[in-house]
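User: Fold both of these, please.

Assistant: Here is the first one.
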Amino acid sequence: MQAPPPDAGQAVADIRDVDAAPSEHAGNPDMSEIVGSHDLLLITLDTLRYDVAAELAAAGRIPHLARHLPGGIWEKRHAPGSFTYASHQAIFAGFLPTPAAPGPHPRLFAARFAGSETTASRTFVFDTPDLVSALAGAGYRTVCIGGVGFFNRQGPLGSVLPGMFQESHWEPEFGVASPTSFEAQVARAEQVVAGLPAEQRLFLFVNVSALHQPNWFHQPGATRESGDSRATHAAALEYVDAHIGRLLAAASSRRRCFAIVCSDHGTAYGDDGYTGHRLGHESVWTVPYAHFFLEPGATAR
């Protein structure tokens, strides 16, 4: 973790508490009952670092997200991959980020296979190759709203992940180069939800691209020449927080919704000489995670 500014002493103390927080903060929902009765929302805040997410929650800089985090804090977890494609392949197979403490840790979703040590009585167990097709088989409309290039459907590789879904959306306005990417994604999500029959169950997945480089344009006064930094990464999370209430409201507008919000991996900004991701550094492997219920109509815009 990079050294915080001198006036962040209280935030540092709070972050240490987050690091020590037990995984029970995340609860132990019975996914075998939730699947089929609730709508489901999965948000991956692509590239979001755990330390930045924890600092901003402790400092009150992401109030809309923090009000839904159990105890107002992020759970510290380890990413299943060091870059978007690998991590999402794992996530869609049921391997969400793993609690950063000795396990084994029961999983919310798991493919049925002999010898699994993380499949428990409350796990939703499926017999398909991936969770997305399993939910489709359980009667869900599966919708992907893509963000980074692995979801853009502009070539074979960019079509693999969105191709798992019955319906997928990507526009240049959703991508990493757009300063208003998340607003555009949220607007599309609202359109998708509004177009569904009331009785149709929904699994909505949103890959949020705003945290990914380039993100310098989210910090007032920053320039392209100054480039991206840990501070602009933080500013991008504040931008996402300012609009996420609309997304949560849409996802819970028809019935109770079970939401998972996490990062797929972090990224380095000069930490120990490293920059970027797809590498084995703490800033990449350690990610924020939360899951929680959204009551119908309870999420303010």
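And the second sequence with its predicted structure:
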Amino acid sequence: MKMQNEGTEDILTEDKNKKRSFLIIMFLCAFAGGIIGGTSELVRDFDAIRQVSETVAAVIAESSYYLNVIVTVIAIAIYLPLYRSSRRLYESWDGEDEAVINRIENRLCLALIITSIQQVLTVMITLICAQSHVKLLDTEGLLWGKEICFHVGWIGALIFSVAAQRRAVNLEKEINPEKRGSVYDIRFQRKWFESCDEAEKLIIYRASYHAHRATAITCMTLSIFCLLGSILWGIGILPVCVIDIIWLVDTLTYCISSYKLSVAKQIR
């Protein structure tokens, strides 16, 4: 009973120590919200903000025809030295020095990070460009220069992404023959994860947790920004709904997965 009371006291002490900082943060947030709400009428009629946003959107839409090509060229320039140096190190490896293998795997990890970033940017740029392309066809008609850049850009980006990931993954499989999965398989990530050892899985778990936290913070920030945009500049509630759906899916996936893993642990 004494140990239980000590544990309860520790819990209450920790809550008491954190309560003050929590209340301060809540007060600052409420104060900031009051300032934003009180000055909303002044900002609502500030046309400069609308003009700047429209100018930025026009520049992005116009440059989107060429961005896929630019991003892919940059990705190739960064990826190739990493992959080639990894291949040379592996071919010259004596089979004993683990430090060499660690350098190779670090470079391959960086190479795969480059391809992952390039994939996300390719999807984003392609969607923006497709929207701009539809508007351009309605106003100016077909422009062959932009048409060619648009299609060459996304096709080239897709080819590079698949080829680069295949080379990096296959080299990793040469180094670690126990690894399984082909980049052409739609279940590649699951098979690759299942073939990882416990240390590698722990890294994936920790990275996934950090990604979950970063996604939650980003969605919350963007939701507030889009809500202000809906109130002040009339962008509508759809952006807020889309971001909150992403946030909800991420949260539900995390909670459901945690529950299933907890139940599985109890059964064992």
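Residues 47-91 form the longest helix (45 residues).
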